[in-house]
């Protein structure tokens, strides 16, 4: 990407990428909401509750604050220059082409491995109702249907994701309302024992010690993966200067309601000692309350969450591969758009690899799911780190008068980005300390070697690649004011 092109994009705030701006405010808002609710909450919270007890609420709140810092940093960058390959583009601009290359491919990897897990999980959920259907058949059907959704148009993707997210949001709100009813009115089988004092009456808020609670942060962060997806939609949003700030600024309320609020109600209705790993705390709580068909209802919601995540993954991988191709960091075939303005080749390759993952997960032990999620978490942490470091570099350039200010500045400037960065480094250390989770760091080392070899190959083929990016173009004085 030449300096002239970069300058023009920054001046207008609306680069011409060839995509259809087909995501309306309603869809972007719901994609942002849905990104904060996933299988990590519905299923993963059980293991975290077992380890941390009621303090898990504090861990989700703490991680939520950091996620908000990350999203405000991303928001400032997005309003400075809204592009579909946002994370890789900003890393490429502010840190250099190598970091853009690594970030783009790593984010792609995150969604491919997440898609592998989610497809297989969805097939397992179907077994709840139809145990006679082979697992691979269900996974294949979901794979083909979601592939078709992503090929048709971005509007269809947005609409499907809207309704997936609506189901998740409605389910969480319904669970909270029912739980509050049990606590205040005392109805159902759980009415006699449901009380807010369950949050501290059974060996305290930190029953297994603060250290054990902190070790759950790696699992908690997995639950927040995909919240950054709103950044990938920037290049296809109808009005990014209005929809993106609104989607990001409502994030604290989503965290308070869907994570802190839901878990506070659940752990008040049922004491934490009754929850175990491998069981959804929501299924257990509904069973305790005595709601008919509780397991089936929650199973449907979890199935929706898995399909939503896979749908988002297909969307993201195609856009990220196209951004890499546009910068000569991936085969040029990935850069082509269909008549419907979708990067079909990139999506097709990603879907093929997700399909291989379904086959692999069919024959390997169940522990492979834990490995896949830990790899996805490591890739997600790298992406978040690149957002933060890019934001820190961007703010330094703005303060020095080299770049225009964004119309959506992050509160505290770069200070909170530094805080979030050190937090993520600490979580990475916890992953290394955990013998079950550290396998993802071994995978990360292998991935780093593969990327290093790929980068060396690219430099030999095109030496000019290494010379691009990493330097902010000089803008004249008229461009240093915020875009309004």
Short description:
With 484 residues, the protein is mainly α.
Written description of the protein model:
- The protein is mainly alpha-helical.
- Helix content is 68%, strand content 0%.
- It is built from 20 helices and no strands.
- Helix 7 (97-127) packs across helix 17 and helix 18 packs across helix 20 (439-461).
- The protein is globular and about 70 Å long.
- The chain starts with a helix and ends in a 23-residue tail after the last helix.
Q: Could you give the topology of this structure?
A:
Elements: H1 3-12, H2 25-34, H3 39-42, H4 45-52, H5 56-80, H6 86-95, H7 97-127, H8 135-152, H9 154-185, H10 210-214, H11 217-223, H12 229-232, H13 240-249, H14 251-269, H15 281-289, H16 294-326, H17 344-363, H18 367-399, H19 415-433, H20 439-461
What key phrases describe this protein's structure?
484 residues, mainly alpha, 68% helix, globular, disordered N terminus, disordered C terminus
Distance between the termini: 25 Å
Overall number of strands: 0
Q: Treating each run of at least 4 consecutive H or I residues as one helix, how many helices?
A: 20
Helix percentage range:
55-70%
User: What general outline do the C-alpha atoms trace?
Assistant: globular
Query: How much of the polypeptide forms β-strand, as a percent range?
Result: under 5%
Radius of gyration: 22 Å
Structure classification:
mainly alpha
Main beta-sheet strand count, sense and barrel state? none
Low-confidence parts lasting 5 or more residues at pLDDT below 50? 1-16, 470-484
| Mean of residue pLDDT values | 81
Order of helices and strands: HHHHHHHHHHHHHHHHHHHH
């Amino acid at each position: 990407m030449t300096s002239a092109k970069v300058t023009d994009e920054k001046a207008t705030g609306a680069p011409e990428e060839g995509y259809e701006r087909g995501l309306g405010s309603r869809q972007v808002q719901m994609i942002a909401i849905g990104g904060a609710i996933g299988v990590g909450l519905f299923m993963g919270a059980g293991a975290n509750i077992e380890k941390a007890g009621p303090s898990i609420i504090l861990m989700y709140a703490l991680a939520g604050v950091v996620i908000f810092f990350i999203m405000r940093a991303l928001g400032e960058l997005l309003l400075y220059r809204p592009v579909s390959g946002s994370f890789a583009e900003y890393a490429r601009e502010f840190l250099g082409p190598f970091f853009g290359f690594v970030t783009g491919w790593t984010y792609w990897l995150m969604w491919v491995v997440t898609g592998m897990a989610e497809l297989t999980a969805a097939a397992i959920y179907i077994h709840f109702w139809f145990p006679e259907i082979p697992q691979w058949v269900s996974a294949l059907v979901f794979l083909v249907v979601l592939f078709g959704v992503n090929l048709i148009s971005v509007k269809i993707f947005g609409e499907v994701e809207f309704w997936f997210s609506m189901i998740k949001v409605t389910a969480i709100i319904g669970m909270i309302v029912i739980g509050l009813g049990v606590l205040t009115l005392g109805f159902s089988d759980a009415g006699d024992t449901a009380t807010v004092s369950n949050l501290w009456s059974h060996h305290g808020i930190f029953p297994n010690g603060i250290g054990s609670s902190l070790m759950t942060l790696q699992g908690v962060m997995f639950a927040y993966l995909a919240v950054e997806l709103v950044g990938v939609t920037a290049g296809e949003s109808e009005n990014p200067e209005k929809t993106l700030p609104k989607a990001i600024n409502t994030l604290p309320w989503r965290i308070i309601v869907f994570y802190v609020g839901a878990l506070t109600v659940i752990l008040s209705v049922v004491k934490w000692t009754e929850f175990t790993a491998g069981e959804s705390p929501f299924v257990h709580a509904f069973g305790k309350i005595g709601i008919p068909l509780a397991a089936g209802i929650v199973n449907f919601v979890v199935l929706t969450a898995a399909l939503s995540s896979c749908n988002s993954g297909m969307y993201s991988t195609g856009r990220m591969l196209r951004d890499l191709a546009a910068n000569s960091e991936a085969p040029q075939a990935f850069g082509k758009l269909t008549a419907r303005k979708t990067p079909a080749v990139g999506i097709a390759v990603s879907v093929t690899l997700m399909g291989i993952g379904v086959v692999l997960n069919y024959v390997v032990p169940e522990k492979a799911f834990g490995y896949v999620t830990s790899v996805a978490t490591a890739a997600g942490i790298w992406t978040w780190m690149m957002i933060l470091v890019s934001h820190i570099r961007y703010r330094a350039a703005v303060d020095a008068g080299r770049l225009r200010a964004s119309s959506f500045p992050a509160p505290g400037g770069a200070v909170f980005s530094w805080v979030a960065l050190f937090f993520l480094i600490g979580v990475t250390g916890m992953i290394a300390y955990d013998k079950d989770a550290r396998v993802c760091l071994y995978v990360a080392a292998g991935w780093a070697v593969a990327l290093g070899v790929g980068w060396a190959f690219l430099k030999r083929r095109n030496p000019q690649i290494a010379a691009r990016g990493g330097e902010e173009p000089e803008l004249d004085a008229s461009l240093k004011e915020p875009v309004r």
